[in-house]
Amino acid sequence: MKKAAKKASKKPVKKAAKKAAQKTASKKTIRKSAQSTGTGTARTATALARVAEILTDSLPYLRTYVGKPVVVKVGGQIVDSPERLQALATDLVLARQVGVRPLLVHGGAPQIKRRLADLGKEPKFLDGLRITDLETARIVERTLSGEVNKRIVAAVNAAGGRAVGISGRDGGLIEARFARPRQLGYVGSISAVQIQLPLALEQAGMIPVVSPVTSAPEAQAGGAIPPLNINADSAASALAAALGAVRLLVATDVAGLRAPDGGLVKEITHKRAVALLRAPSTQGGMRPKLAACIAALEAGVEAAVILDGRVPHALLLELFTSGGGGTLIRG
Questions:
Q1: Per-residue pLDDT tens digits for 268-280
Q2: Are residues 171 and 273 in the same domain?
Q3: What is the per-residue burial (b if ≥16 Cβ within 10 Å, else e) of 128-167?
Q4: Do 198 and 305 lie in a common domain?
Q5: Same structural domain for residues 71 and 58?
Q6: Its pTM surpasses 0.70
């Protein structure tokens, strides 16, 4: 009897202790939840403050670019990367939405190389320019105007913009003559730019996307007018000058322009850019890019940037923040 009474007396004590432990655990959980909520709220507030800071800092840049044309040149590497293409499309749409007037000129070297390889043709270059026979010129036009251009247009439209793909042939946009026919073949040197078509597209709220191919000055026997391959950097430079662009942005797959000692050049004057163009250290594809920037400055464009296009949203960072990457060249 005594043992049974003892066991019975212990049961209420155990139940009370268990309830007390559960109550304590519940309080701890509530405190942790409150602390977590407080931390989350603090983090959200910090993030919002950072967004507000970025938007405030962008105001001077918005004043510089809103209502003014900006010409952007990109290479075909961007099209081969879905992430980079989507970021570019988003940047163009946002820039247009806030009032900037972007026009995009694109190249397509990787895509052209693949198409030529499919046909057993080896690409050849001279001073950074493609040596182009008639067959190659036709392949270049099909690849740039029919493949690369349409993929960029589709990406911009998918991002909420309204892009229209055109080439140098359309509306007489780019007039050209043979550059060095004996050395380069069907490669054009720009003689004139007619901007009525891109202006009409911009006024309609569109983003022009330009393929750098135009018509040869003379028809072949039978009346066919062959294409001329135009260096995309040169096309972007000429269009920037004709439109009175406030900036020419030339996206690359490198950090920017390099000095003879190998160091990255963050900002230079027109005079120093000319000197670097003559320097042996400026080679290959960088030569036409730098030459295009210099030509744009000499034609009245305020500044040009050889931009590190590998950086996500490099276009927005260059236009609306102080954190752009690459080399700024001032006139």
A1: 999 999 999 998 8
A2: yes
A3: bbbbbeeebbbbbbebbbebbbebbbebbeebebebbbbb
A4: yes
A5: no
A6: yes
